[in-house]
Amino acid sequence: MHRLILLPALLCALAAPEARAQSDLIVRFLRCEYRVDPLGIDVLQPRLSWVLDSDQPGQVQTAFQVQVASAIELLAAGGADRWDSGKVASSDSIHVLYGGRPLQSHQEC
Fold it and tell me: The domain that contains 74 carries what CATH number?
């Protein structure tokens, strides 16, 4: 059984360079089909969601990148053997469709 690790690596462009240096952006509430660490998803292209949080008011997401790997070690080494969306210029953070290799039965996401 393979376990899919879904990690939205959000690339956020902020309004001013000084704001980038002073703020921390945090990805929270990672979801797959509205669930945290779901089991038994019967969808071939699950929908991914997340919330971007910041200590600075007015910051917004302008792009994202989703990387999917069969092992957390691959992601830690910069690899995504299942899917790498590349940088997507979008503020979307809900209903982002998985676009990688077809998922198999008994895989978790």
Answer: 2.60.40.10
